[in-house]
Amino acid sequence: MRRRLAKHPHDFSAYLNLGAILMSRLDMQGAAGALKQAVHIDPKRPEPHDILGSALQNLGFATEALQQFQLAVEADPNYINARYDLARALAREGKYEDAVAQFEPVAREFPNSARIQDEYGVLLAQSGRLAEALKEFDAALAIDPSYEDARKNREELLAKSSRH
Q1: HSE (side-chain half, CA atoms, 13 Å) at 2
Q2: pLDDT 10s per residue in the chain (164 long)?
Q3: Domain map (residue ranges) of the chain
Q4: Which CATH architecture fits 110-164?
Q5: Which fold does the domain 1-93 belong to in CATH?
Q6: Which of 50, 92, 109, 164 has the fewest Cβ atoms surrounding its Cβ within 10 A?
C-alpha cells in the first residue's frame, strides 16, 4: 500500500483503504494521518470524514471527531453511517435533541433492527421524550423478544416514570 502511495501520492482510494487498515490494527494515529490525506484529496466524499471522525474519537479528540462527522453528513446527507456516528457523538456531548434528529433516519433505514430501535429509544429517553422512547423499546422487543438491552432500558424507563 505504501509503495502504491509513493508512486501515486494523490490516490484517494489508497489513502482511504490504508486508513481503514490502520484502524483495524488499532493504529489510530496512523489511520488519522492517512484519512486526512484522503480528505485533502477529495473533501466532498463522506467516507474519509466519517472514518477520520472515528479515529479522532478513539484518540480522545471529541470536538474534532464531531466536526468530521458533521462534514460527512454535509457531504452526503443520505450516508447513514455518518448520521449514526454523528448522533452518537452528539449524545456523548449531551446534545440529545440534536442526536435524536440525526438518528431518526438511521432508525427509519433499519426498522427491523432491534439494536437500532433500542439505541433510538435510549436517545429519545435522554432527550426527555419518554413516551416515544417506550414505543421504540417495545418495537425492539417486538423484533427480538430476547433482546436484553431493550428489556432493561424499558424497565428502567418505566421505573423512572413511576417515580415521577
Answers
A1: 4
A2: 667 666 777 889 999 999 999 999 999 999 999 999 999 999 999 999 999 999 999 999 999 999 999 999 999 999 999 999 999 999 999 999 999 999 999 999 999 999 999 999 999 999 999 999 999 999 999 999 999 999 999 999 999 887 76
A3: 1-93, 110-164
A4: Alpha Horseshoe (1.25)
A5: 1.25.40
A6: 164
